[in-house]
Design goal:
single chain, about 180 residues, alpha/beta, six-stranded parallel beta sheet, 6 strands, about 45% helix
Length: about 180
């Protein structure tokens, strides 16, 4: 890819990062843990993106429990509900909601920073996903969402109550860049 094309692709990320910085400095520390909220397959893609391409070296546990937060400074929540994924994990929606609430409570008590990502697009925005989004966004310190999954601007609406930056990107690669931009090395 030509350098001029790479620059063109980065302009939206730079504009969005500048917007986030205007809202206040945001930074996340390692060690970090990636987990799924809703058990969609999006976590597998995000794990590869953040660890292999962005070289962040984050642990990934789709079914993370409170005990997994013991030494974690940053918790990355990948939100997207999948009935197939929930079933494969042996969970129903109520159990996943309770697991999520427990993680959020423990993170708050420990001072663990929360970063929320939604990369599943419009196809992942059913009632269950929306309920989970409503649960996690108010606790987030930073939100990255692929634009196709945020046509109704729900993420901005929920995040505005706390003043949380919402970075809306056009591509999955840009989502990875937006996350990398806030992690301290």
């Amino acid at each position: 890819m030509k350098a001029s094309h790479r620059l063109y692709l980065m302009i939206p990320v730079l504009i969005l990062a500048t917007t986030a910085l205007a809202a206040g400095p945001v930074s996340f520390s390692k060690p970090g843990l990636i987990t799924s909220i809703g058990q969609s397959s999006d976590i597998a893609v995000i794990k590869v993106l953040l660890n292999n391409k962005m070289k962040l070296g984050l642990d990934a546990k789709p079914l993370a429990q409170v005990a997994d937060l013991a030494s974690v400074k940053s918790l990355i929540l990948i939100v997207g509900a999948s009935t197939k994924g929930l079933g494969a994990a042996g969970l129903n929606v109520d159990q996943e909601t309770e697991r999520t609430k427990a993680l959020l409570k423990a993170a708050k008590e420990r001072g663990t920073q929360i970063l929320v990502m939604h990369t599943g697009g419009e196809a992942r925005r059913g009632k269950t996903t929306n309920d989970l989004i409503n649960l996690v966004i108010p606790e987030a310190g930073y939100v990255v969402v692929v634009a196709g999954g945020n046509k109704d601007k729900l993420f901005q609406s929920l995040a505005a109550k706390r003043g949380t930056p919402v970075i809306e990107v056009d591509t999955l690669a840009a989502a990875g860049e937006a996350v990398k931009a806030v992690f301290k090395e």
